[in-house]
Structures are given as structure tokens and as C-alpha cells.
Amino acid sequence: MIETPRITQTDAQHTALIHVTVPRSQLRQVMGPGISEVMATVAAQGLKPAGPWFVHHLRIDPEVFDLEISVPVPSPVKAAGRVKPGQWPAMKVVRAVYQGPYEGLGAAWGEFEAWIREQGLHTAQDVWEVYVSGPESSPDPKTWRTECNRPLLD
User: Fold this and answer.
1) Going from the N-terminus, what domains does the chain have, and what CATH number goes with each?
2) C-alpha angle 55-61-64 in degrees, rounded to nearest 5
3) Other Cβ atoms within 10 Å of 69 Cβ, number
4) One digit per residue, pLDDT tens: the chain, 154 residues?
5) CB-CB neighbours of 18 under 10 Å
């Protein structure tokens, strides 16, 4: 179950990211190492995250994930290995917060998408999830919080 979605304005933000295209079945194998690599690169450059990490899904495909594993940073990172600098633009988004284990995110997105349709909102094709709190915060998955975001076109 998601909290009631809301429309909000985001600010522009520098990011450090790794672009990954992977079969759906391999997502779990790349996510942990990917975020560890981004965080290590940020730390090695003397920076600290400017917020929670997130995944930007560039293309929705049932078989393949095309995404960027990202962390916001206060200033641009220097490219290092697979980690590249990015710029997240300011935009108007519709956002819902899901609380629970990551296995429930598919159903949360379905509920969120239904709400968007009911409201008659027009969204871009890409989506992103912000992992506000997760396993690093608590061993209890019932307390984990994930923001589901869709950029608005109107």
C-alpha cells in the first residue's frame, strides 16, 4: 500500500551514477555492487551524498532493466571507472511513498499507476525510485520507505 500520492517540484541536483542495462533476472546481482561502487567513488573524491540513493529507470521493458544507479552529490564528481557525473533536472513530479519490503514495489507501482490514470495526469516514460530508508537503516523490511516518482508532462 502507498501513501496518498502528491504533486511536487524537485530541485536540480548533481549526481554520481552508473548506467546499467541488465536482464530482469540479474538485477539483484548488480544493484548492491553498483551502489557500493558509486558510494566508494563519491567518498574517494571527498564528497558525501546529498540525499538518499536512487534508481532512474530510463526504459520500461518486462525483460530488461535500463537504469542509472545514482546518488545525489553537492558538486560534480569526476568520472572514475564506471561512475560518471550527472545532472538531475528540476521538474514537477507525482510522487507516492511505499513502506515495506522491496518485493512489494511491483504492487506499489501498480497502485500508483492506477491513481495517476484516475487523476488524468500525463507522465513521462521514465520513472525513479528513491530509497529513503532500507536495509542500511533497519533490519525490519516493514519500516523501509521508497519514493516512487513519475515526471509530469503538463
Assistant:
1) 6-151 (3.20.80.10)
2) 70
3) 25
4) 899 999 999 999 999 999 999 998 998 899 999 999 999 999 999 999 999 999 999 987 889 999 999 999 999 999 999 999 999 999 999 999 999 999 999 999 999 999 999 999 999 999 999 999 999 899 999 999 999 999 999 7
5) 21
All residues at 6 or more sequence positions from 84 whose CB lies less than 8 Å from its CB, including other chains: 16, 17, 18, 19, 77
pTM (predicted TM-score): 0.92
Report phi then psi at 30, rounded to 5. Answer: -100, -25
Give the DSSP letter string of 12-41: PEEEEEEEEEEEGGGHHHHHHHHHHHHHHH
For residue 55, what is its C-alpha cell? 534508481
Set of cell numbers at residue 56: 532512474
Nine cell digits for residue 13: 541536483
Q: Which long-range contacts (CB under 8 A, 24 or more apart) does 29-32 make?
A: 31/55, 31/69
The one-letter amino acid code at 154 reads D
